[in-house]
Amino acid sequence: MAEPEPDQVQQALISLVIRGMARGAPDQATAALAERGLAMVKGPITMPTPEGTAAVAALLRLEAGSPQEQDLDKLFDAFLPVNRRLRDVCSAWQTRPDGTPNDHSDGAYDDTVRDRLDEVHSAIGPILRRMAAVEPRLGGYRPRLQEALDKFDDGESSWLASPLMDSYHTVWMHLHQELILMLGLTRADDEAREERLVSGRT
Predict the structure, then answer these.
(1) Mean pLDDT, the chain, whole residue set
(2) Is the pTM of this model over 0.90?
C-alpha cells in the first residue's frame, strides 16, 4: 500500500486537532500521525498528542499583527456573544428552566427554543461570510451549519447538539477551535474575553 501524501497527513492532523478526536479505525493518513508521535490511538479513539496540537497551532496561526489577524480578531469579538447564545440554546433544548430534563413533550416550549436557534443562525451568517473573506479555509462552516440545521428541522433532533455526529453544536465547536488556533489564544483567554464581551453588553 502506498504511503499517504504529505499533504494528506497534514490535513488529517489539522482535522484531528480541530475535532479533538476521531472515532473508528484510523485511516492511512491518521495512522501515519500515530507513527510520528503526533496522535495516539486508544481503542476506537484517536486523539492528537501535545506535539500534534502544537504543530497545528503553528500551521494555522495567522501572522501576529498582520491585517488578516487584526480583521479576524475583530470578527472574533462579534462571534463570542453569539457563541454564548448558542450555548444557552443547547442548554435550553436539553434542560427546562426548572432544571428538569426536557422530554420534548411540550411542543410550545421546543418551538421557542427553535426560534432562538433561528436567531443565532441568522446572527452568525454575516459574521461567517466576513470571516471567509479574511481566511477562505473558514468558508466551509456556513454550509456545514446549514446542513445540520436542515436535518434538525426535518425532525432529527440529535442534529442540534449530539457529539456523535457533525451536529450544529459540533460544527460550531470545530469553528471555535479553529478560530482560537488562528488567533493564537488559549482557552482561558477565550473564556475571559467572551465573559467580558457578554457582561459588557448586558
Answers:
(1) 94
(2) yes
